[in-house]
Amino acid sequence: MRRKDSVNTMQIQISPSVLASDFSVLGQEAARVRAAGAPMLHLDVMDGVFVPNISFGAPVIAAIRGCSDAQFDVHFMITDPIRYIGDFRKAGADSITFHVEAAQDPAAVIAAIRDAGCRAAVSLKPGTPADAVFPYLQDVDMVLVMTVEPGFGGQKFMPDMLPKIRAIRRECMRLGLQTDIQVDGGIDPRTVSDAAAYGANVFVAGSAVFRSDDAAGTIAALQEAAEAAFGAAL
Ligand code: DX5
Ligand code: ZN
After folding, report:
1. How confident is the model over 63-95, as pLDDT tens digits?
2. Which of 5, 46, 62, 149 is least buried, going by the fewest C-beta atoms within 10 A?
3. Which atom in ligand 1 lies closest to the alpha carbon of residue 149?
């Protein structure tokens, strides 16, 4: 089936996740993928409670803010997200994504992210159904569909998340919204096509980009594959 007119103009963007970078030279790694053509930088914040892993917090993000002019795409995998929005905005976040499962009042978190001056996004874990985010689609800039269990890089893409991506894209289309749909986990030049076909337009890639010998070539390959496939399965 042809891509639908209403989503024809969606911008495809690649967001490399620093989780797969060399943390001993994090600033240089951020600069390297920016120079390689990535417009966004994905920053995974984990608290060891919402997910079974701890990564880094606002001071680390502030330390590398001057190394890249990419859009800092902060992915909260933390409980009580509303409490930390101000700290991460000050550290340089342009966009903050929180998990719908972690928020008592998701609408309040979205409002607080916007009040802080960031783009707001809501995410769902693999076990959470698409309709958990339907009440918030009018208010967010982006929905992040996890395509692995959050917590670790280098996992295998879960193809059974594809219908969920499509369900959210179709609901956005029904509402006349051009909301970004981001996917995160196991994205590489092959899986990116499937995710794009089902309606994702923003792609987190950790291992695929940072572990590549040719980051620019990999980013371009991801971009081209996503552009070619976008909307084909809608
Ligand atoms: C996982 C993180 C991802 C991770 C993706 O919880 O949210 O952003 O870095 O890593 P890859 O692309 O290696 O699957
Ligand atoms: Zn992430």
Report:
1. 999 999 999 999 999 999 999 999 999 999 999
2. 5
3. 6
Structural domain that includes position 44:
4-229
Residues 6+ apart with CB under 8 A from 34: 41, 67, 68, 69, 70
Whether residue 147 contacts residue 157, with contact meaning beta carbons closer than 8 Å, is answered with yes
Q: For 42-51, what is each residue's pLDDT tens digit? A: 999 999 999 9
pTM: 0.97
CA distance 16 to 68: 12
Cα-to-centroid distance, 64 and ligand 1 (Å): 19
Count of structural domains within the chain:
1
With a 6 A CB cut-off, is 18 part of the ligand 1 pocket?
Answer: no
Q: Ligand 1: which of 44, 77, 97 to mutate, most ligand atoms within 8 Å of CB?
A: 44
| CATH code, domain carrying 43 | 3.20.20.70
Q: Whose CA is nearest to atom 4 of ligand 1?
A: 153
